Amino acid sequence: MTIQLVWFRNDLRLADHAALIAAAARGPVAALFVLDDETPGQFGSGWRTGAAQRWWLHHSLASLGRSIAARGGRLILRRGRAGPIVQALAGELGADVHTIMHHEPWALVQEDEAGAVTRHHGATLAPPASVLSGTGGRYRIFTPWWKRLLEQMPPPRPLPVPDVRWADVAGAASDDLDGWRLLPTAPDWAGGFSDWQPGEAGAAARVADFARRAARYDDTRNLPAVEGTSRLSPHLALGEISPNAAWHGIADAVGEAVAEPYLRELGWRDFGQNIIDQFPDHGDVPGREAFTRFPFRDDPDGFRAWCRGQTGYPIVDAGMRQLWATGWMHNRVRMIAASFLVKHQLIDWREGERWFWDCLVDADYGSNSLGWQWVMGSGVDSSPFNRIFAPVGQSVKFGAADYIRRWVPELAKLSDEAIHAPWEAGVALIRAGVKLGRDYPAPIVNHEAARARALAAFAAARGA
Ligand SMILES: Cc1cc2nc3c(=O)[nH]c(=O)nc-3n(C[C@H](O)[C@H](O)[C@H](O)COP(=O)(O)OP(=O)(O)OC[C@H]3O[C@@H](n4cnc5c(N)ncnc54)[C@H](O)[C@@H]3O)c2cc1C
């Protein structure tokens, strides 16, 4: 019988994997993953997998490899340009190829270059091109798109791991995962990543844990000091759980009506895929023309201060340090920190987007470009530019005091009231033994002046 080669990409799971299910039904199965930096590297400013996600990828591949080996198979690892490698291995094995469809522009090139490949749905709740308006057009705005998607929801229930007869591929060459050097060594900055459990079992454990808290999601999801969200994003980004399984896992636990705010967030992930499917260069090119002329500032020192969590705005610094230490940042704080960079500092959103890409374990081309263009106001569906987050107001409103204490320990002794704006804390600062400029930076910009400067920059871009 013809060997069925399953080409795994960012769908590193065995359950609810349409390509594996189809392959297993047709014949003996071989499994392949290709580490391809070349194809994504050729798009826009270059989108090879970033450093934090490489850490995750290492552990996820190790986990998938173990699961396949425990069932009697072998995960073949190859490195290089994916399309030709897949085609060559399929030729060598005389195999048919199956893969899950992905929507990043480089994923489409990989598929085209791989030759005859059967593509299966499974990276999103519904195929992006299936959510169409009454006149057959594509959506650019979330709310009408979401209403239309809901007509196809709930998604099909996730399917279990199929019975697989593994092909004998002992003769096929495979790289050694350690040899890929995906883990950091000198220095090993991933020490703070130990709370994560990459892999399919880790994803299932997250869903089970979050299912117990999901009923409180809507009340707590905006509070960075509370573990109110699922933290499923890196598992979804690498496809260790299907979006359908996440949907049903939470809807079954608390009922679809209570789960709605959570399911809508899963919808945002799909919406990002819908956007990059229509605008493949969304990671590099603003969705609105006026923003091609935006007068960004060239400010390497300011950018470095932002990356290192040294802006003097505690909520921004807490978020940037959480990102560096754990590879993840709370969504509310992502919005505040991103807005600070592009509006208070007037630094190009693409610089922040790239930093996130390199630091996030959940880096996802669709969600990341959507998030940055939304915050900038440059996306096809985005927040208006003149909606400028006030970092202190946001920090107070969303009760971030304990979150700041955790990530900016030099301010830990300040009271809940004083901690959001230490430059206004006066005597409390002295009592806490904190000297601004020595122990913690003074704010690098003044909020009101920065706000006025940002609005003037926008007016210039629009009027030019
Ligand atoms: C500037 C910026 C950049 C971002 N970059 C990324 C990124 O690279 N990768 C990424 O997965 N998310 C990104 N997000 C979206 C969001 O911050 C994360 O998905 C969320 O914080 C993940 O935490 P969670 O799993 O606990 O989310 P939950 O609140 O538990 O949500 C469940 C799932 O829904 C999806 N989701 C939630 N919010 C969003 C959103 N706003 N947009 C798209 N999907 C969403 C995620 O897959 C998430 O796991 C970005 C947001 C901003 C503002």
Description:
- The chain is mainly alpha-helical.
- It has helices at residues 18-26, 38-41, 51-70, 82-93, 105-113, 142-150, 200-211, 217-220, 233-237, 243-254, 256-278, 300-307, 314-326, 331-344, 349-359, 365-376, 391-397, 401-407, 427-431, 447-463, and strands at 4-8, 29-35, 75-79, 96-100, 117-120.
- A 5-stranded parallel sheet has the order 3-2-1-4-5, with helices on both faces.
- Helix 5 links the parallel strand 4 (96-100) and strand 5 (117-120).
- Helix 7 packs parallel to helix 10 and helix 13 crosses helix 14.
- The model has no long low-confidence stretch (mean pLDDT 97).
- Residues 221, 229-233, 236-237, 265-266, 268-269, 272, 331, 334-335, 338, 356, 360, 362-364, 367-368, 370-372, 375 line the site of flavin-adenine dinucleotide.
